[in-house]
Amino acid sequence: MEKAKSALKWDQRSDMVKTGFILLLVIGGTFGGYTLFMFAMGTTTPLVVVTSESMVPTLQVGDLLVLRGVPEEQIQVGNIIVFKDTETFLDTDNPIVHRIIDIEEIDGELRFYTKGDANAPADHGYRRYDEIIGVMVTKIPYIGSVSMFLKTEVGISLIVVIFILILVVPEFACKDEEDKSSEANTSTLESDEKDISIFFIK
């Protein structure tokens, strides 16, 4: 650790630079860990937030779903899948979370028919395997609401403010401490000078 600090000239860096460097390490570690998680789960989107009520009561808005990629032949009726189908679901660009209610094979192609638990009719058409992002493994209730909030204008503004505070506050805090220390040293020197003067006057 000391060698690393020496190589980076850590003690010579300002607090703002140190804070920025640490933030970069945290962000890099987070993205690196997420990349490993994607590889382990076999899908480029292992985490998805439920944004509609079509799967109530099984899933609620704000639930965070953990997905895994599953070979085509292992997908079964009853599985909850997340898929992208902009041709059928024209009103949304978000992934759809619905349950498989039927599977049929036609001309060597598997067709997956889906339906939301809260919806009366089944979804129009069918899903192809290349449209399926992943099969739900588990859910974490409501934690996805935080992610949904952070995507709003208020959430983004809050992130920016917090980031600025993290960078700026330590710098000002250290300056205040340095000023107080300087004032204390000046006061001590003046006091010592007075003591010396009194000593010589006596």
Question: Can you put this structure into words, describing what you see?
Answer:
By secondary structure, the protein is an alpha+beta fold. It folds into three domains: 1-41; 45-142, Ribbon (Umud Fragment, subunit A), CATH 2.10.109; 152-186. It has four helices and six strands, in the order ααββββββαα. The chain has helices at residues 2-8, 15-41, 144-150, 153-201; strands at residues 47-49, 64-68, 80-83, 96-106, 109-115, 132-140. A six-stranded antiparallel β-sheet has the order 1-2-6-3-4-5, with helices on one face. α2 (15-41) runs antiparallel to α4 (153-201). The model is unreliable at 192-202 (pLDDT under 50).
Secondary structure topology:
Layout: H1 2-8, H2 15-41, E1 47-49, E2 64-68, E3 80-83, E4 96-106, E5 109-115, E6 132-140, H3 144-150, H4 153-201
Antiparallel strand pairs: 1-2, 2-6, 3-4, 3-6, 4-5
Helix pairs in contact: 2-4
